[in-house]
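Progress against Task 2.4 (sequence-to-structure conversion) is shown through the following example record, which the project officer requested during the mid-term review.
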Amino acid sequence: MSKKSSHKSMKGYYLITFLIGLGFFTMGLMDPLYDTYVPIFLGRYIQSNAVIGAIMTLDNIFAIFLIPIFSAISDRTRTPIGRRMPFIVVLLPLSGIAYSLIPFSALSSLALLVIVIFALNLFKQAVRGPVVALMPDIIPGEIRSEANGVINTMGGVATIVGTVGLARLMDVKLNLAKYGPTDNILAFPLAGVLVILATLLLFFFVKEGKQSVEKEDAKEKVPILKSLKHIFGEKEKSAFYILISLLFWFIGYQGVLPFVGKYSVEVLKTSSGSAALAAGMVGIAYAIFAIPSGLVAHRRGRKKTIRFSLTALIIILLLIFAHSLFVKSDTIGSLGRTLPFWALMFLFGMFWVSVITNSFPMLWQMAEYANIGIYTGLYYFFSQLASIVAPPITGALIDIFGYGSLFIFAALCMSVAFFLMAKVSRGEPQDDPQPVATP
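Structure tokens generated for the chain above:
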């Protein structure tokens, strides 16, 4: 298919892609607030950053098993409302309810906070794979970078809503019966309500059952172990190298993310309500550049776009490290501490979304309709493995060397991913796409 025709065909998919993106919107809404404030909540009870980092990985232990398992199970699920939707309509609302309870549990005890965190991630990580796999079920392979750009835009808008909008409500005091005027509450229950509303819209307007490819759906139910053996047993190792590359770039990203809020409060001296603005800058960049990054990759190639973006991320992380050295001076005012950091985080988000927007479609391009969920699950297996490995390492680095070590560590990880991506030779838009439904 030519570039011209593929772009023309995308016009018929924008609305359905936007609606599918409501599922991704919920993840973009929950994750940044969670990553910003849960370490702060844990810090009420725990002094060691290494221990906080370790606790932040406990939910990812669920994810590393639940996302691949539920993605693969949804591949083989057959119901009147589709193969992904049953998981979405049950588990996403439960995620929203558990999410709403986090700040209240943090007021009570460490044990209750950890229990609620576990419950949230049990629901959220189980549904994440089916939510993400819904898009490649419906969108043709040659335009998935553009479609993933639309979906990442939804995630970016959600991040803006959460970090720039809802996060400001963390400074609002609620008069709680047991605790009196209390702040650091309101954003979480409001986000939970938005998650439930997004789920309802997704269910009523995306009729997955009508989108299924009936002929293939009837004959192909590939065994999970057979699919895994096929993926890792291929002589051509592009899928393997993408997975290892994303492991390293997510180690870099997930090593920094849980501590950005604490870094903002403790080093940059921001208020609690402003602690999420760094993540908000990433979200704004997501919303602006997700679709353009997919269009650029369609013209220039996904691999070239990803490697260029990784190079830019390395430079930006080194600049953030340099900035972290200057803010220690007492002569630097509050704007001198925060504005350059937020600007660099915006640039970080601009190139980070380019990596994320195009890496998933590269992997999906190598999949068949029957095992799209398995490829999705593998993507999340390696990304969640990074979430387990990275925070304890970077927490320990902070304890030993200070916050600046976060950014050096992340730059090294991005460098490894850059060199691994050189070995990838498949997954471009012009490669043979697998058959999907038409809306």
